[in-house]
Design a protein that fits this description.
Blueprint: H1 5-9, E1 13-20, H2 23-32, E2 39-46, E3 64-71, H3 82-98, E4 104-107, E5 111-114, E6 117-128, E7 134-142, H4 158-161, H5 168-186, H6 192-201, E8 209-214, E9 217-226, E10 232-236, E11 239-243, E12 247-250, H7 251-262
Parallel strand pairs: 1-2
Antiparallel strand pairs: 2-3, 3-7, 4-5, 5-6, 6-7, 8-9, 8-12, 9-10, 10-11
Length: 275
Amino acid sequence: MHLAEQALAQSYRLMHRAETGSTNDEALSIAAAGDAGRLWFVADEQTKGRGRNGRQWSSPRGNLYASLLLIDPAPLHKAPELGFVAGIAVFQALREVLGDDPRLRIKWPNDVLHAGAKLAGILLESTQLKGGGLACVIGIGVNCCSHPVTALYPATDLAEIGTLLHHRDDVFLRLSDAFVQWLQVWDEGRNFAAIRSKWLDHAAGVGTPITVSTAQGPCTGVFETIDATGRIILNVDGQTLTLAAGDVFLNASAAAAVTSIRAAPVEAVSHEDRQ
């Protein structure tokens, strides 16, 4: 496993483990110990992989489990935008292994889908350091050779799709390169407009009805756009509704999602999820 040349030139580093509890937890621990950041932590297998709201994240060998640690990447109020930067970087890396496949899309806020099935996900976490700095960790999971069959959403993997470049090392090399590019475009939060525009170019479901599961219950409307801070904007019976967090269900899955949501208590959700 290797970093791309552009990443090495920008002083990014790589730490690899055969097994860990959670790559995000390891990266946060490394930050607390005083690491300067620009560090990729990659594991062959996670024993305590997690997604949003404590959901278990299946982490068998063969898939990519990577977390990027950044220290003070932007002012605190701009840090959540990293989820969208990551979404574009993951999309670009996967596009390079899959080719110009129109079935590859980004789902709000930062999952990557292929033909409507989840191929990759992102978990963004941050913490204030004792010295006053901000540690941001971007956790990325890519289904390279296997995928869960009982996840919240339909899922797929690169091997199932049929690309020859389905090894996790192929993906990581391209991912480490794409992150350098899009972090530079983002410019520490000064150019989120370019990130937003690129994200919308490849977004799933724009202009179609979607259902968003929120802490207050499911909301169904036409996905119009995202605003200047990344919140999703729905047209609900002619009224504009802006949501900062939620689980998005696209078109065909929306009816089933609403039934499932109403049959069980609705839990609060956040922007990030790898499973």
